[in-house]
Amino acid sequence: MQSGFKISKNEQAWVTIQDQAYTRTILHAFGDDDKKNILMILASSPKTINDVLTKCNIPKTSGYRKINSLIDGGLIVSNGVGLSEDNKRITTYVSIFSDLKIDFIKNKVTVKIRPNRT
């Protein structure tokens, strides 16, 4: 997905998404309330899938499906693997962006993101 990014030097770390398919992926994700909530929770700090589903109050079956869709779409990524209290391996995830701007200018949709530094 990196090829869809264009860094504009005069906009302080905002990245314009050039790839229209990726723009559609972002817009579709924000059109789904559960996916939007997942992205918003993961924008601030890495969390496990169970933590996200609990905070968003989403059932596990549909929640895993939505999270996998966001992973497949490149909107959330693994942030590493750790150990739980009972020594099981757990993966944390984070959104690829911390802020998002959607502009509508003369029939054109522009999406800009501020990449997540986590």
Characterize the structure shown.
- With 118 residues, the chain is α+β, with helices and mostly antiparallel strands.
- The protein has four helices and seven strands; from the N terminus they run ββααβααββββ.
- It starts with a strand and ends with a strand.
Q: What's the SSE blueprint?
A:
Blueprint: E1 5-7, E2 15-17, H1 20-31, H2 33-44, E3 47-48, H3 49-56, H4 60-72, E4 76-83, E5 89-95, E6 97-105, E7 108-115
Antiparallel strand pairs: 1-2, 2-7, 3-5, 4-5, 6-7
Helix pairs in contact: 2-3
Strand-pairing-aware structural class: alpha+beta
Q: What's the name of the CATH homologous superfamily?
A: Winged helix-like DNA-binding domain superfamily/Winged helix DNA-binding domain
The biggest beta sheet reads: 4 strands, antiparallel
The first-level CATH class is given as Mainly Alpha
Physical arrangement of strands within the biggest beta sheet: 1-2-7-6
